[in-house]
Amino acid sequence: MAWSKQRLNNLFFFLGLAAVVVMLFTFDVSFVELWDHLCHAGYWLIPIVGVWIIIYGINALAWQAIIRSKTASSPEERGKPSFWRIYRLTITGYALNYATPVGGLGGEPYRILELSKNISGQHAASSVILYAMMHFFAHFWFWFSSIFIYLGLAAVGDLPINTAIATVLGIIIVFCLIAFWIFSRGYRKGLVVSTLHLLGRIPGLKGWSSRLLENRGETLRNIDEQIASLYAEDKHAFYRSLVLEYLSRVVQSSEVLFMLLLFGIDCGGGFTGITLTYLHAILIVSFTTLFANLIGFLPMQLGVQEGGFVLSIAALGLSAALGIFVSIICRVREIIWIVIGIALMKIKD
Question: The whole model's pTM is what?
Answer without folding.
Answer: 0.83
